[in-house]
Please model this.
Amino acid sequence: HGQGRHDEHSHHPRRRRRIAALLALAIASGSLGAGALSLAIFTDSAAVTGNAFSTGTIDISTTPATAPFNVSTMMPGDSTTATIQVNNAGTGALRYAMSTAVVSGPTLAAQLQLDVYAGATCSGTALYSGALNAAVVGSNAQGAQAGDRALAGGSNETLCFKATLPLATGNSFQNTSTNVTFTFDAEQTANN
Model:
């Protein structure tokens, strides 16, 4: 009788192992089956190709690029004119400003008077009227400023410059000269 009990206890752990093994197999089979099911679905995709991006340009230049004025032997009361064409060779709209820097002869540069007009003739309302050494049109500060000039991409405009040696200029200015540079600064108008 004691023996039978011993046999009963000895078979019981095997049964437990068999049930555990069958249960593990069933779970594994279920997992494999689920994995097989998830791999057996129909799929498709579509690609949108050819997405191209490029930037525009801001490109300012002048015609002529140098020395629109080359004046000698000016006398008090004399005036001389020159035109400068401002070109936007870029693709983007721009706004520009002009400033003047004295390279040499600051005394005569302060004495000469300059008027700047929009257009090929020096007539109408001046964009600037005052001493040559302080000549500005607009402002090169970022953003829209009073007096800034606007140019669409691929367009241009002409400015007329009139320099005058005032009639009241005294003898101390005889045999003097000056040299100045006009600088044109441009910036994009889009988002600015």
Notes: The longest strand covers residues 94-104. Strands lie at 60-63, 79-88, 94-104, 113-118, 128-131, 136-137, 149-151, 156-164, 179-188. The mean pLDDT is 88.
